[in-house]
Amino acid sequence: MGLNIKVRLFGGLTPPKSYPKNESNEYLFQVEENYRVANLIEELSLSDKPLIVVINGLICNDYERAIKEGDVISFFPPIAGG
Amino acid sequence: MRKIIRINMSAEKPEVKEEPIGQYERYGGRSLTSAIVSCEVDPLCHPLGEDNKFVIAPGLLSGSASAMSGRISVGCKSPLTGGIKEANAGGQPSQALARLGIGAIVLEGKPKNGDLYKIEVSKSGVKVIKDNSLKMLTNYELVEKLKKEYGEKIAVISIGPAGEMKLSAASVACTDMELRPTRHCGRGGVGAVMGSKGVKAIIIDESDSKYLEPKDPEAFKDANKRFVTGLQKHPVTGQGLPAYGTNVLTNIINEVGAYPTYNFKNGQFAGARKISGEVEAQLEKERGGNPTHGCHRGCVIRCSGIYHDKDGHYLTKQPEYETVWSLGGNCAIDDIDKIAMMDFLCDTIGLDTIEVGVAISVAMEAGLVKWGDADGAIKLLNEIKEGTYLGRIIGNGAEYTGKAFGVDRVPVVKGQGLPAYDPRAAQGIGVTYATSTMGADHTAGYAIASNVLKCGGFVDPLKPEGQVELSRNLQIATAFIDSTGMCLFIAFALLDQQDTFQAFLDLLNSFYGWNITANDAIEYGKNVLKMERDFNIRAGLTSQKDRLPKFFYTEPLPPHNKVFMIKDEDLDKVFNW
Question: Which of A38, A56, B453, B525 has the greatest CB tally within 10 Å of its CB?
Answer without folding.
Answer: B453
